[in-house]
Backbone:
């Protein structure tokens, strides 16, 4: 799996030994130049007299705090302190040190840059800046987007006196509280009744999907970070602790027992910490993240602002501010409502890269969509569209207003129409039962006919996206008109809407040309009738492999590209995420077929190659073409580095991921500036 | 759509006029140097005295046969005959000539190489060879695979005195006979009762899919060659006449009336000719194609063989024999049974490029597959596999025997397991009704649970192909063992089986490595236990876009590539053929988004680019890598030219398409040799 050739041979190290177990004047210890948990400066470490290294690590003998060495052997202690200072100044970072004292003589065994918690990473980076050891650019390389993301999850209250009853693997971060439930169907039922539940299983399999969806979090006693539970929970963004082997899960009696003897029965409340892997009995209070409060603006990161800011918040503030100064790549958010748009703006988004219009067809409006689908002729269809248009317009007014002065990319309707109708199988059963009972199925029968007509074997590869726009007369036109009128209304009110109209699922330039020509006509009409200049761009998603392969042609008709890397991954790998993530991804990760799910981090070799081809050939055909990405990969650190390397103009991600993307975009800029100049 | 810039301007031709309508000594006519219908040499054409060209073409005045001109104006006739000979010798082909006689003086208006029927094309090409006007290479360029395909459809008996009651467009070739039916549901019901039906509609839409599947042929009164009926029928390979506008289709009264007044009511038998567009009342006798009889070996194409061969069959024989001598690209067939393999061999296949193993899991064996899926543990699963293995082995023995000495590429199981189970919706309805009636659903309930567990939103992008092989323990191993044992059995009997094991749906080299390593182990075991040398190759389909994009890596583990261009097209365009062909392809063809369905002819710009990348990079990584194609495109003339240009080693297609592929591969070779040397 690691592709190491078997004939490379084995390396041998030869070194002399020193002994910490030669009696009272001997000993061994580990030392940190700073606290790896909090980042605080000071003397941290453990010392054990008359012992060797394994004794410290194994935890079978109680160690002393490192400070105690000062009393035991002042000379060695002084020497150690001086060496630690030398090491930290040399490495300009927290050092993790192992040492041995043999009969009063101090020997250094090894040192390395030490591991630390996410919070410590931010604090240490800014402390080192304040000490003049590193500059802000380098500080930025010392923290990661993944660490920032960790700091943004809610956490259990540190001041709570809860002690874990077990600890498993931190498979998917977050803090979840709920009633323990031992099978997925019951979890689903209880959740439907308004209970918050934690699904507890030995291990999960594809049959548990409904329970996992229903639960606040998932706890398993078997399996590692690539187990089914872990992979699927991460895909869902749901808290998960897995492989808590000290739990004896008794599915038959619906309970588990910890090694310490605590029994949790079905319905008992438990709390699980997906960041630490800890499991608690009862409800542990959950604290909001101060970092999120900072981004939300409820607490300030600026020391000048009067009060005493939290040191962590101040560190985050300084580093993200520097990242913003350094980065070339813009960061936008995916947001479909004014509320999301406002939050995204607070979180630093510089526009909306993906405003989906699907939700605007749900709720009360589903009726109009049904009317549209069941329309007997042009008049009925137009009536349904006419009913939808003012609702859509009001949606867009709200979103454009929230993002005033910043670009908003609106994606025309993407999903197949049957998604707005009832499920085929459920409806078939209802109608069959009604017939069996001699009841009149009425509208349900008409609906069933429509659902059957629109039923697709593979909806992801069916009548959706631009295909819908070309086949359903007036649909995209209605949306474009609503967008144009919303923009004109705001312009008239002195606002500055910046609209980008995005056509989904384009595979051939001719599709785009057809929609673009219609859109341009409608934009001109609205401009004419309102007297407002509408400088809307018309562009396309690149999410079908063929679009990437013919990007040079498509760029002739597109004013911008936005990669839909989720669909590009699905089609490029031939994966339907809903089907495969639960069905076999954990096995694939175990087999090493991939190291990380290609839905988490972009598969650079395959899908990334399409991104690179499309960017290069699109820009060759239309110099200065604006190119971004609006898939979930836009918020993934590794993927962001790749997108920056390819030279994308922006990434767009969920509002909560915007700070992560800002930080990573800054880190890329600093790293590439560094590699250029050194 | 044609991408002609609007600023190109319009060309103007200026020429002097002659008049054929100056009285009795004047006239006009058309002449062919050979009969464009049969290819026979002689004087063919029409003449009209005192007339201009439009009068001949319009058909409002009755023309004379060209021979009559000899009586009217012998001098002009003699001059015309001499010019016709000059023209044919110059063009070395059938010429289509227009002339006018103005007051006794012959003027030639224009000539061009004339259109001809498929049969005439073959006859004329070989006649010209016999006359020494062209050589066999050039003769090969005068016929096409599409023409040969036309000659292979069954036809209505020419000697029948049936006269068409109407003529529409020849939308999809073949000869179909059945009862006229005017709605799709009834067509489905009648077909289920054993009736042969012709679906008659004004036009079809996606709701007619069930009727089109059930019918022998489709007849519509509206729409052209890109109408829904035409596109879908061609996709199904089903006879279709569309746009027969002289038919008045009265759906309400379930009948149609022709312009001539014939009324056909539902249930009346009609016959439709998809090659000519003719519609007949009643049953017209269908004749087998003599060209197919030739390939089947029931009639001979060799004149030396004694009897007098059909001139057409002899022409086909000479040209296909020459194509075989000329071509570099091999032709294989897709065949899953010994019968198909034998026919393919008769039709000239040089191996099997795709032997699907799906059908081997159907029929009586479905029970074992159900057992495999419902297996409660390893033992039950192994028992199901053990029951399947000898059946599979017997299948392979038959196929390898039929293809003795030629390569057979066996594809390991590809479709998702739920394809072997009942339909989810139908089963849900049955179980719900059983419950409603208080009956015990029994095994159906257990099946429903399994179907629900295996249910996929997008089965094409789900748990199938190599994924199945990696997730279901023992499945691929059982298949490989059956293949190996079958080969060993034949070797022991002195036969020469040449086995290629093909892994489907590979997207990453690691998938292939894992299966290959297992397969190699099993092959070695069987070799060991039987003492027979098994030189089986292990290779992969290239049908997932990512596989094409990482072909260099995959070639390290693959001993051959075979492009599955059908899936590559589906995934590359993001199209599910079942869903999109009926839903919107006709509209797309109308809009000019593509000129031909990408399932008929390979989309060279998009999907072809993947084929090119994978071939080049695969061969760069493994020089001499054997590369073929086994999608339906392997039998499409345009696609074959592209595959030859890319340098594939072989194409594989359905047995009936093998002669077409042989001819086209020969044509490519002759054309490229021509362009090299001239």
Residues:
């Amino acid at each position: 799996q690691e592709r190491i050739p078997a004939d490379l041979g084995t390396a041998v190290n030869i070194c002399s030994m020193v002994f910490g177990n030669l009696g009272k004047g001997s000993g061994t210890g580990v030392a940190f130049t700073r606290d790896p948990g909090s980042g605080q400066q000071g003397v941290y470490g453990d010392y054990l007299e008359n012992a060797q290294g394994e004794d410290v690590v194994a935890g079978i003998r109680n160690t002393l705090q490192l400070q105690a060495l000062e009393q035991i052997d002042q000379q060695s202690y002084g020497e150690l302190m001086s060496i630690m200072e030398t090491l930290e100044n040399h490495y300009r970072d927290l050092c993790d040190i192992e040492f041995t004292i043999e009969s009063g003589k101090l020997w250094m065994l090894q040192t390395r840059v030490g591991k630390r918690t996410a919070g410590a990473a931010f604090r240490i980076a800014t402390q080192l800046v304040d000490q003049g050891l590193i500059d802000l650019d380098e500080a930025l390389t010392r923290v990661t987007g993944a660490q920032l993301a960790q700091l943004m999850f809610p956490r259990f209250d540190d001041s709570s006196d809860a002690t874990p009853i077990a600890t498993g693997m931190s498979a998917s971060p977050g803090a979840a509280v709920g009633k323990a439930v031992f099978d997925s169907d019951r979890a689903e039922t209880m959740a439907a009744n308004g209970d918050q539940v934690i699904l507890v299983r030995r291990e999960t399999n594809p049959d548990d999907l409904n329970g996992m969806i229903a639960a606040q979090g998932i706890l398993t006693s078997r399996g590692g970070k690539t187990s089914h539970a872990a992979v699927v929970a991460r895909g869902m963004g749901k808290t998960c602790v897995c492989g808590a082997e000290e739990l004896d899960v008794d599915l038959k009696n619906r309970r588990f027992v910890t090694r310490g003897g605590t029994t949790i029965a079905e319905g008992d409340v438990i709390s699980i910490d997906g960041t630490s892997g800890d499991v608690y009995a009862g409800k542990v209070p959950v604290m909001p993240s101060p970092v999120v409060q900072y981004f939300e603006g409820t607490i300030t990161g600026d020391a000048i602002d009067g009060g005493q800011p939290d040191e962590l918040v101040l560190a985050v503030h300084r580093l993200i501010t520097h990242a913003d100064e350094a980065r070339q790549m813009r960061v936008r958010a995916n947001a479909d409502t004014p509320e999301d748009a406002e939050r995204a703006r607070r979180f630093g988004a510089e526009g909306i890269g993906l405003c989906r219009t699907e939700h605007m067809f749900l709720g009360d409006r589903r009726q109009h969509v049904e009317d549209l689908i069941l329309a007997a002729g042009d008049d009925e269809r137009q009536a349904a569209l006419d009913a939808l248009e003012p609702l859509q317009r009001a949606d867009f007014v709200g979103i454009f207003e929230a993002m005033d002065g910043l670009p908003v990319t609106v994606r025309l309707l993407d999903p197949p129409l049957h998604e707005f109708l009832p499920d085929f199988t459920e409806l078939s059963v209802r109608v069959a039962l009604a017939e069996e009972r001699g009841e009149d199925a009425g509208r349900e029968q008409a609906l069933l006919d429509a659902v059957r007509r629109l039923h697709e074997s593979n909806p992801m590869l069916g009548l959706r996206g631009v295909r819908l726009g070309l086949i359903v007369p007036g649909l995209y036109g209605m949306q474009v008109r609503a967008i144009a009128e919303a923009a004109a209304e705001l312009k008239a009110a002195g606002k500055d809407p910046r609209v980008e109209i995005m056509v989904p699922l384009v595979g051939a330039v001719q599709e785009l040309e057809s929609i673009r020509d219609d859109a341009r006509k409608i934009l001109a009409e609205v401009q004419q009738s309102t007297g407002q200049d509408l400088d809307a761009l018309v562009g396309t998603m690149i999410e079908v492999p063929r679009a990437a392969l013919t990007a040079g042609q498509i760029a002739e008709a597109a004013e911008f590209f936005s990669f839909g890397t989720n669909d590009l991954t699905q089609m490029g790998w031939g994966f339907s995420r809903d089907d495969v993530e639960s069905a076999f991804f954990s096995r694939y990760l175990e087999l090493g077929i991939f190291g990380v799910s290609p839905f988490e981090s972009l598969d650079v070799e395959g899908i990334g190659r399409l991104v690179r081809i499309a960017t290069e050939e699109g820009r060759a055909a239309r110099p200065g073409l604006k190119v971004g990405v609006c898939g979930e990969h836009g918020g993934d650190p590794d993927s962001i580095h790749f997108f920056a390397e390819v030279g994308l103009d922006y990434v767009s991600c969920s509002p909560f991921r915007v700070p992560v993307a800002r930080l990573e975009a800054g880190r890329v800029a600093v790293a590439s500036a560094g590699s250029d100049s050194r």
Q: What stands out?
A: The radius of gyration of chain B is 29 Å. Chain B has four domains: 27-113, 153-287, 327-357+396-416+477-671, 420-455. The first strand of chain B starts at residue 27 and ends at 34. Residues 420-455 of chain B form one domain.
